[in-house]
Amino acid sequence: MIVVGAGNAGMSAAFAARERGASVLVLEKAAREWAGGNSAFTAGAMRLEHGGLADLLDLVEGDERHAVTDLPPYTEFAADLERVTLGRGDPDMARVLVGDSAAALRWLKGRGVRFRLMYERQAYERDGRWTFWGGLAVGVVDGGRGLVDQQAAAARRFGIEVRHESPVEGLVPGGVLVRLPNGGFQELRARSIVLAAGGFESNPALRAGYLGPNWDVAKVRGTPFNTGEVLLEALEIGAAPYGNWSGCHAIQWDAGAPPTGDLELTNRFSRQSYPVGIVVNSRGERFIDEGKDFRNYTYAEYGAEVLRQPNGVAFQIFDQRSVPLLRGIDYDAPGSTRVEAGSLRELGEALRIDAERLERTVSDFNAAIVGGPFDPAVKDGLRAEGLAVPKSNWALALDTPPYVAFPVTCGITFTFGGLRVDGDARVLDLSGRPIPWLFACGELVGGLFFHNYPGGSGLTAGTVYGRRAGYAATA
Ligand SMILES: Cc1cc2nc3c(=O)[nH]c(=O)nc-3n(C[C@H](O)[C@H](O)[C@H](O)COP(=O)(O)OP(=O)(O)OC[C@H]3O[C@@H](n4cnc5c(N)ncnc54)[C@H](O)[C@@H]3O)c2cc1C
User: Fold this and answer.
1) Residue 241's beta-bridge partner residues?
2) Which residues make Cβ contacts (< 8 Å) with residue 347, sequence separation at least 6?
3) Nearest-atom index, ligand 1, CA of 35
4) What is the mean pLDDT of residues 317-344?
């Protein structure tokens, strides 16, 4: 079997096929140091259904904090997926994702991937107890880099060959065309081919073409290698397009970040603590409900909202009450773009935005706050009402200088449009029939995510569909 792409989805397919006795060759476009695609850039967060802390103890590594942890059962994965995708996702695909989620993670553990509870990202501590929030608790030890390294070690153990610097640029029935350094092609054939080469988020022309104007100037959070050629090639040979081709996952990202992902800092340009602050544009106006829901259910759609603002930038604003709540691993990252001032007027001037309007925005906001008390671990109902743009939870007044601002822009994570597959990850043609030798998994598959996305679902989807692809391709 040939797998195209050595990210989490492709490696999951490779493990499953090897488990069934197939010989497996993984073709990866990038050099070894970039191996792992977007999967290497992740926090390693993986969403699964579970029955609470006791149910997870066989999956995650020991931690002395377990004894003082509140982690309720999570059985709302399907409902969360349906809610944030506005009911547009394929219900059969959602059933597969949710139904396989717990088994797939335990299976991945059996392939050498180590899991832990993500206290630093998904829990708040109060009076010595940790409370997990937002349906997401489990992550890979050492994040995305750990995941990719653990999978590479397992591939060596299982005798799976991963060939780097081997870009696939063509598909023929039962085979792939690999571009050679001399510009020519080598044809490699196999009984089945699994496509796992990611979406088209790193291709500015395809972004502008499918996502719309200005998407070419968005920053890319992850690998520069997911440029969509394998996806286009599959369409060319008759595979059916599926899902939300004008939609993507995009977040608020440090405005000073490089144009594509940074191997050292990876995920640390993320600016995810906006629910405890406010976000304004260069006119000094708020434009999103920062507290609409837990961050896990809003972050993936707010990148696009920032891109719609003048110059595609915005400014997250906090004061000395909210600064201690910022997720330090990201906001304190080396080179983080940060501006501090003793008054809102000075802050606005330093940011070169409408400072007078910023002052008015904050005083209107502070005056509109009702409810509470503040509790970041639940939807606390501490809200700002009666404004053109309300804030539904965690509406702490901004009144304790010095004030701190973090300029953000849109960072695209991955695209939602892709190929159509059935429950065995077989690629379907335009008549809805499986192409017998062709399978697909991961970002390159469409149909699961529309408009938005519940955090931690991408890796789980890659493993769920990768595992199914590997089994079906060797059946
Ligand atoms: C910064 C960041 C943080 C994230 N955090 C999380 C998280 O915590 N949890 C979560 O669930 N999701 C997260 N995601 C999303 C997650 O990365 C993806 O959903 C998931 O990794 C996709 O896996 P994949 O295997 O489909 O793609 P990838 O991991 O991107 O793998 C695709 C591979 O295909 C290769 N390739 C591309 N073109 C070719 C070609 N022509 N020939 C051969 N190989 C090719 C690429 O080089 C790459 O190695 C994050 C993404 C980013 C960018």
Assistant:
1) 419
2) 317, 339, 340, 341, 355, 358, 403, 405
3) 49
4) 95
Residue 67 has what pLDDT? 97
The predicted structure's pLDDT at residue 372? 85
CA torsion, ordered 221, 225, 231, 237, to nearest 10 deg: 170
Contact 201, 216 (CB under 8 A): no
Count of domains forming the chain: 2
Domain range enclosing 444: 2-53+75-104+141-200+416-473
Q: What percent of the chain has pLDDT over 90?
A: 97
- Reported as a pLDDT band with limits 50, 70 and 90, residue 249 is very high
Q: State percent of the chain over pLDDT 70.
A: 100
Quick check: is 258 in a domain? yes
Q: What's the CATH code of the domain at 421? A: 3.50.50.60
Alpha carbon of 158 to those of 58, 194, 227: distances in Å?
A: 24, 18, 29
Residue 475's pLDDT is what? 92
Shared-domain flag, residues 405 and 304: yes
By the 8 A CB rule, do 371 and 378 touch?
no
Residues with CB under 6 A from ligand 1: 4-10, 27-30, 36-39, 41-46, 167-168, 196-198, 221-223, 225-226, 229-230, 267, 413-414, 442-443, 456-459, 462
Spatial CA neighbour of 247 closest among 87, 91, 93, 85: 85
Q: Count H helices, E strands: the chain?
A: 13, 25
430 shares its domain with 405: no
pLDDT (0 to 100) of residue 233: 98
Same domain (yes/no): 312, 426: no
**Rg of the Cα trace of the chain?**
22
326 assigned to some structural domain = yes
* Residue of 11, 29, 38, 177 with the most ligand 1 atoms within 8 Å of its CB, for mutation: 38
CB-side neighbour CA atoms (13 Å) of 75: 5
Q: For position 315, what pLDDT does the model report?
A: 98
Calculate how far, in angstroms, residue 7's C-alpha sits from the geometric centre of ligand 1.
6
Atom 35, ligand 1: which residue's CA is nearest?
A: 5
- CATH number for the domain spanning 368: value is 3.90.700.10
Mutate to test the pocket of ligand 1, among 459, 463, 464, 465 (most ligand atoms within 8 A of CB): 459
User: Do 190 and 174 touch, CB atoms closer than 8 A?
Assistant: yes
Residues 327, 432 within the same domain: no
| Residue 384 sits in the same domain as residue 433 | no
Query: What would the pLDDT profile of 127-138 be if each residue is shown by its tens digit?
Result: 999 999 989 999
What's the CA-to-centroid distance between 357 and ligand 1, angstroms? Answer: 41
